[in-house]
Automatic annotation (TrEMBL):
Gene3D superfamilies: Cytochrome c1, transmembrane anchor, C-terminal, NAD(P)-binding Rossmann-like Domain. This is UDP-glucose 6-dehydrogenase. It catalyses: UDP-alpha-D-glucose + 2 NAD(+) + H2O = UDP-alpha-D-glucuronate + 2 NADH + 3 H(+). InterPro entries: 6-PGluconate_DH-like_C_sf (IPR008927), NAD(P)-bd_dom_sf (IPR036291), UDP-Glc/GDP-Man (IPR017476), UDP-Glc/GDP-Man_DH_C (IPR014027), UDP-Glc/GDP-Man_DH_C_sf (IPR036220), UDP-Glc/GDP-Man_DH_dimer (IPR014026), UDP-Glc/GDP-Man_DH_N (IPR001732), UDPglc_DH_bac (IPR028357).
Length: 440
């Protein structure tokens, strides 16, 4: 099948590469010529394990190419995927400007009957709106079919998720279109859920909202555990063994971030509001998350009597989670500016996200890709991302390098028994605090 993919962000790039890997001939189109230039040379524009090899292999086999010109990729395509961003508007709703522009680009360039597949996360009703927009603007008498094929990949494991996903959801306007898409996806060997378009659009938002709910739920339980002397990790283990609950997404911490959960939960609240439905549960999920992101700051202030002026602070992790250089909605973007505002001198460590962080956090803080460098002479440490380098660290490093070994861990990186053995003062989430004087 000849396929065009519009947008080479996380989703467009991984989709295009994966479709070429399973034998389709794919042209990836992006309006950003610098991305196209790098990708055409086989250099990935995002950090994603396993992606570089696949890009190089499929460029080499002739199945994959990149262009910044819609007229080079669209006229020949039988199927066009839209995978552009749907960021959050100021009122929380999804911004459809990029999807609408992609529709106009399609309308201006198609010369044959096509199926347009929307991979971007879009509110219910968008697929039909986009089909109508294309039909209104195309000059040629071509037949346009539309299908919703939401994406479920996670950053940091996008390639693995694409080739070993739990399901592929296809919402098509008729059985023939649904079957063509099922055939395109057959080599992935993943269960396919065929449904109507509105349900497919809703499956995506509901899945993200449910996962976000699980996280806020366990974070709320963690906060209760702290007041009641229980340990949230024990609680999550005991709950997760019930197969109706399941062990995943029950890791308490500093709150969810990333390019999807925050914006998609807000968009679903807005979408519900448009249908005169007050989504109170999801509103609480969002509120719990907002509070969770500043919880460590409260712990820090309470430990230092509200005064951290002039203190040197090692912040470990900038990315919203490990194995990505993405900072979108990272708790680091909430906590670091507050630490700076309170007069702290921040030195931030991240193994791969420093370049992206500099663009957003500027020069008011120091940066390092060396974990030990950040710890040197620090008055206290704040762990924001559970990078493996941080998790694997020998805890003696904190006493060896820091002025005082005081650690606020937003990701529960360390076993409390190990912490007990090391002489560090340790505050984590939903677990008993460990101070050196308690040892023994
Ligand atoms: N990032 C994820 O992990 C993830 C996972 C599942 C679903 N999603 C959803 O997928 C969509 C895309 O997300 P993303 O993170 O890949 O987005 P992104 O913002 O990282 O990338 C979008 C790309 O599209 C390009 N673009 C915009 N308009 C264009 C046009 N008219 N023609 C050609 N190129 C154009 C941009 O230059 C950019 O490179 C969103 O709706 C998102 O919610 C994202
Ligand atoms: O038990 C958990 C699991 C995750 N998180 C946090 O939740 C956020 C999101 O994590 P994750 O879901 O792994 O990353 P994303 O790449 O944002 O992926 C989510 O968002 C994508 C975009 O819609 C979807 O495609 C994926 O299925 C969905 O998992 C991160 O801040 C994590 O630290 C927790 O705090 N506790």
């Amino acid at each position: 099948m000849k396929i065009a993919v519009i947008g080479t962000g996380y989703v467009g790039l991984v989709t295009g590469v994966a479709l070429s890997e399973i034998g389709h001939v794919v042209t990836c189109i992006d309006v950003d010529p610098s991305k196209v230039e790098r990708l055409s040379k086989g250099i990935p524009t995002i950090y994603e394990p396993g992606l570089e090899e696949l890009i190089k292999k499929n460029i080499g086999s002739g199945n994959l190419r990149f262009t910044s010109e819609h007229q080079k990729g669209l006229p020949d395509a039988e199927v066009v995927y839209i995978a552009v961003g749907t960021p959050q508007r100021a009122d929380g709703a999804a911004n459809l400007d990029y999807v609408e522009q992609a529709a106009l680009d399609i309308a201006a360039n198609i010369k044959r009957d096509i199926i347009v597949v929307i991979k971007s996360t879009v509110p219910v009703g968008t697929n039909f709106h986009i089909r109508n927009l294309i039909n209104q603007h195309t000059m040629n008498s071509v037949r346009v079919k539309i299908a919703s094929n939401p994406e479920f990949l996670r950053e940091g494991s996008a390639v693995e998720d694409t080739f070993h996903g739990d399901r592929i959801v296809i919402g098509a306007e008729d059985a023939e279109t649904g079957e063509i898409l099922a055939q395109i996806n057959k080599p992935f060997n993943t269960p396919i859920v065929k449904t109507d378009i509105s349900s497919a659009e809703m499956i995506k938002y509901s899945s993200n909202a449910f996962l976000a709910t699980k996280i806020s739920f366990i974070n709320e339980i963690a906060n209760l555990c702290e007041s009641m002397g229980a340990n949230v990790e024990e609680v999550a283990k005991g709950m997760g063994l019930d197969h109706r609950i399941g062990p995943d997404f029950l890791k308490a911490g500093i709150g969810y971030g990333g390019s999807c959960f925050p914006k998609d939960t807000n968009a679903l609240v807005q979408l519900a509001g448009n249908a005169n439905h007050e989504f109170n549960l999801l509103k609480s999920v969002i509120e719990v998350n907002n509070n969770q992101q500043v919880l460590l700051l409260h712990k820090i202030l309470s430990r230092f009597g509200d005064d951290i002026q002039g203190k040197r602070v090692a912040v470990l992790g900038l990315a919203f989670k490990p194995n990505t250089d993405d900072l979108r909605e990272s708790p680091a973007l909430v906590i670091i500016p507050k630490l700076v505002e309170l007069g702290a001198n921040v030195i931030a460590y991240d193994p791969i996200a420093v370049n992206n962080a500099k663009k957003q956090l500027g020069t008011e803080i120091g940066y390092t890709e060396d974990f030990t460098e950040a710890l040197k002479n620090a008055d206290f440490t704040v762990i924001i991302t559970d990078w493996s380098e941080v998790k694997k660290a020998n805890l003696s490093i904190y006493s060896q390098l820091m002025k005082e070994p005081i650690v606020f861990d937003g990701r529960n990186c360390y076993d409390l028994n190990e912490v007990k053995k090391a002489t560090i003062e340790y505050y984590s989430i939903g677990r008993p605090d460990q101070a050196p004087e308690l040892i023994g």
